[in-house]
Design goal:
The complex is a heterodimer.
Chain A: H1 2-6, H2 11-16, H3 27-34, E1 37-42, E2 50-51, E3 57-58, H4 60-73, E4 79-84, H5 89-94, E5 100-106, H6 109-113, E6 117-119, E7 124-126, E8 128-133, E9 147-152, H7 156-167, E10 172-177, H8 180-188, E11 194-198, H9 199-208, E12 215-217, E13 225-232, H10 236-254, H11 262-268, H12 272-277, H13 284-287, H14 294-302, H15 305-312
Parallel strand pairs in A: 1-4, 1-5, 9-10, 9-11
Antiparallel strand pairs in A: 2-3, 5-13, 6-13, 7-13, 8-11, 8-12
Chain B: H1 28-36, H2 41-66, H3 75-86, H4 96-107, H5 116-133, H6 138-158, H7 163-182, H8 184-203, E1 205-206, H9 207-231, H10 233-261, E2 265-266, H11 276-302, H12 307-321, H13 325-339, H14 348-374, H15 377-385, H16 390-420, H17 435-441, H18 451-478
Antiparallel strand pairs in B: 1-2
Helix pairs in contact in B: 4-11, 5-6, 5-7, 5-8, 6-7, 7-8, 8-9, 9-10, 11-12, 11-14, 11-16, 12-14, 13-14, 14-16, 15-16, 16-18
Classes of the chains: A alpha/beta, B mainly alpha.
Organism (chain A): Paracoccus versutus
Family (chain A): Belongs to the bacterial solute-binding protein 3 family.
Signal peptide (chain A): 1-22
Chain lengths: 341, 484
């Protein structure tokens, strides 16, 4: 047996010989040469990124990967999804393992500067909230003095929680948990009075309960969690491509361009902004190294921002998130695409 | 009745009384209960406490398990079915999740059309191991061979292997089994080639690249055998150099030429598609297979008379044992990226296998050192007296006995290492226990399921680990040489 297994070590060499790609420099060129976009996503977050029984990924963040692939490579399916954990996500990006990180990551000062990431925008404005059992009789987070709270360790939510209770002169008893599933279990088992995480996650968790009507999400949002896709520092053209793909999705909703009417509008729209966006007039695509119809393809991949939102996390889905801050600026939200000109 | 008794003394009993059954309290279940459960106040108390605990577990878990639902499309549907059948407020297990997603627990994101490849690799593992593990018992070996042949074939067929692949599999496996039965010594060579076949089956690509790596080893071995008599240790260095030169200069071009002549290609599957038990077993088997020889070498090195070698071995073992496995995994996955030149694509599974192997080898070395220390000094002296050199003495006299003594420890290390493969979740790989389960919980349908994946994955881990432990006990019995 000793002998037979010694040779196994060689398998290593054969594997090491396979494949090598450059990490720095012209990401667009690399992606085009490779023919596949490497997109870093969450290992599994309901509504944002999750594989189905056949291993096909879908979700809000995944839809953005698809849009970028459609814009750059002309095919929304040419994405390799690289699942990343909270610990590995930024290293995966900076080491060149992924070209784009669409993994519900909060845009913070330190990540933008010290970690050498470029957040290209915000695709979801989130914030931290609390969920409690209705029979606890609490209607505001301010009444949670002395409560036991389930909190995921090693996240920004943990720090936000400490800040909030300190600022309001309250005490709490943390119950540390490791993952969302464990948090739900602890909360259901009564190990904690309140469960805190991003409001989108709370809504998804509540929706999955057998008795959602017995739980309420408190109105206070105690932190700002602007979630956005990120790319590496230093490749500004690639940053432009991804940023304007996001804006194209948002602008498309603003101008009423949907995946259903996009072909028709490309031919017949009189709106000059729509014409520029869809490449009917002007060739904006050339300025970022793509062709004229890049944005058209991106929008066609999964629809405009509003369509993606509705299909993955919106009110019709089991998660049932309202648009809130993520509505268009014309509807009182914060989604505001820069002009296509 | 004979007449003799009439002459004997009157007070001697002439017939035996028939034996009475033992008193009720001294027989059967009652005796057992009294002796084992109620033999004193402490034991009586403990018995009732134990019964209470059992009742508590059964009364909580029992209804939940008995309300299990196996046919449903989502968690909500499960709950609805349970509420309909068992009334409002009843809870139950929703094993429909397992039925729906079992393939991801087993194969991760491995392409569904290619499921037969890991199955075949796993089946062939037993063919490769049978001549080594069951060399002493023809019957056990035949049972293992027959079972692995039949099961591999059935599962591959069920998982939709194409006709051609099934035929090829059948021919390959039957030939191999025949080889094992007729020429056991030659079949060891086939076992040596197994890792290359397994890598080819799992990762796909061209068979020739694996064949070239194997050819490099053969070349090195031939060089060493030819020159060993004349140059001694230098021959070993030459062999290493010849192998390296072969891999670096000739292997690549030759592989592509051969691939052009006879393309033996399977669809490539990249490491990020591995997950679930395919990943765990790949890492586990590779780690087990590599850590044992490495552990033997380290154990011998630590007992060596050469101070440098001894010092190196001690430093390595104590360093690795002093560091948690997770730290090593993080080094493999994150830190290495900063050391390697940018753009190097050093396969993550390979990195993890290396780290897991080093980790297990350090523990293995100590287990085997225990075995070496347990061997009486006379054995070493006897080997010397026979005029054997160091390596021959170790190979023929010392190690066979030392390894036999260490079997329980070795297998414990194996089992521990196999279970530790679930820690790869921390470097973003899809282990079956947590990463895969959390990913499946992230779908709309199965959000809210908690215990079901743990039970399923735990059961499979139990079967595999229990199997290993039973095998080690079988091996101990087989290798028992001291006849009491």
């Amino acid at each position: 047996m000793k002998k037979s297994v010694f040779f196994g070590s060689v398998t290593a060499v054969a594997l090491a010989a396979s494949g090598a790609l450059a990490a720095e420099g012209d990401t667009l060129k690399e992606v085009k040469a490779r023919g596949v976009l490497n997109c870093g996503v969450n290992t599994g977050l309901i509504g944002f990124a999750a594989p189905d029984a056949n291993g096909n990924w879908s979700g809000f963040d995944v839809a953005f990967c698809k849009a970028v692939a459609a814009a750059v490579l002309g095919d929304a399916t040419k994405v390799k999804y690289v699942p990343t954990t909270g610990q590995t996500r930024f290293t995966a990006l900076s080491s060149g393992e992924v070209d784009l990180l669409a993994r519900n990551s909060t845009w913070t000062f330190q990540r933008d500067t010290d970690l050498k990431l470029d957040f290209i925008g915000v695709n979801y404005y989130d914030g931290q909230g609390f969920m409690v059992r209705k029979d606890l009789g609490v209607s505001s987070a301010k009444e949670l003095n002395g409560a036991t709270i389930c909190i995921q360790t090693g996240t920004t939510t943990e720090l936000n929680l400490a800040d909030y209770f300190k600022a309001n002169n309250m005490d709490y008893q943390p119950v540390n948990i490791d993952s969302n599933a464990e948090g739900e279990q602890q909360y259901m088992a009564g190990a904690c009075d309140a469960y805190t995480t991003d409001a989108s996650g709370l809504a998804a968790t509540r929706a999955s309960f057998a008795d959602p009507e017995n739980h309420i999400i408190l109105p206070e949002i105690i932190s700002k969690e602007p979630l956005g896709p990120a790319v590496r520092h230093g490749d500004n053209n690639w940053g432009d491509i991804t940023r304007w793909t996001l804006y194209a999705l948002i602008a498309a909703e603003e101008y009423g361009v949907t995946s259903a009417n996009i072909d028709e509008l490309a031919k017949s729209s009189n709106n000059p902004e729509v014409q520029r966006l869809l490449g009917t007039t002007d060739e904006l695509g050339k300025m970022i190294g793509l062709d004229a119809e890049w944005a058209k393809r991106a929008i066609k991949a999964g629809g405009n921002y509003g369509e993606i939102f509705a299909a993955t996390i919106g009110e019709q889905t089991p998660i049932g998130l309202a648009r809130g801050l993520n509505a268009q600026w014309t509807q009182g939200g914060l989604m505001y695409a820069m002009p296509f000109r | 009745m004979s007449e003799t008794h009439s002459e004997t003394v009157a007070y001697v009993r002439e017939t035996m009384l028939p034996p009475e059954p033992p008193p009720l309290a001294e027989t059967g279940a009652i005796k057992w209960l009294r002796e084992n459960l109620f033999s004193g106040p402490l034991n009586i108390a403990l018995t009732f406490v134990g019964l209470g605990i059992v009742w508590l577990v059964v009364s909580t878990v029992g209804p939940w398990l008995s309300h299990s639902v196996w046919n449903a499309g989502s968690m909500a549907e499960c709950r609805q079915i349970i509420a309909q059948t068992w009334g409002e407020g009843a809870t139950g297990a929703c094993f429909a999740l397992i039925k729906h997603r079992w393939n991801q627990f087993l194969f991760g994101f491995y392409p569904q059309a290619l499921y037969w490849r890991p199955v075949l690799a796993f089946g062939l593992l037993f063919l490769a191991l049978a001549p080594v593990l069951f060399s002493e018992s023809t019957k056990a070996r035949r049972v293992v061979l027959g079972l692995s042949l039949a099961l591999t074939f059935v599962f591959a067929a069920l998982l939709g292997a194409p006709m051609g692949a099934l035929l090829g599999m059948a021919v390959l496996m039957l030939l191999w089994a025949a080889l094992i039965e007729t020429r056991p010594r030659w079949s060891l060579l086939a076992s040596l080639a197994y890792p290359f076949i397994a890598v080819w089956l799992l990762w796909g690509g061209s068979l020739w690249s694996e064949a070239m790596v194997l050819a490099g080893f053969c070349l090195g071995f031939v060089v060493w055998r030819l020159l060993a008599a004349r140059f001694g240790l230098l021959a070993f260095a030459l062999a290493v150099m010849a192998t390296a030169a072969w891999w670096l200069l000739l292997a690549g071009p030759l592989a592509s030429v051969l691939a052009g002549v006879l393309p033996l290609r399977l669809r490539p599957v990249s490491s990020d598609q591995f997950g679930g038990f395919v990943l765990s077993i790949t890492i586990g088997v590779a780690g087990i297979a590599l850590s044992l020889p490495l552990g033997v070498i380290l154990a011998l090195a630590r007992r060596s008379d050469l101070p440098v070698i001894k010092l190196l071995a001690v430093m390595f073992i104590e360093f690795i044992r002093g560091v948690p496995l997770i730290t090593l995994l993080f080094v493999a996955s994150l830190l290495l990226n900063y050391f390697l030149p940018p753009g190097t694509n050093f396969d993550i599974i390979l990195r993890v296998i290396i780290m897991v192997t080093l980790f297990a080898a350090a523990y293995m070395a100590e287990v085997i050192r225990g075995g070496l220390a347990a061997l009486p000094k006379g054995q070493y002296e006897a080997a010397d007296a026979l005029g054997l050199d160091y390596w021959k003495a170790q190979r023929l006299i010392v190690l066979p006995q030392a390894l036999k003594i260490s079997i329980p420890g070795i297998v414990s290390t194996f089992i521990g290492m196999f279970k530790d493969t679930t820690l790869v979740v921390f470097v973003g790989l899809f282990d079956p226990l947590k990463a895969m389960a959390d990913t499946i919980r992230a779908s709309f349908e199965w959000k809210g399921a908690y215990w079901e994946p743990y039970i399923f994955v735990g059961a499979i881990f139990f079967i595999l680990c229990f199997g290993m432990s039973r095998y080690s006990m079988y091996l101990e019995r087989r290798l028992k040489r001291d006849h009491h």
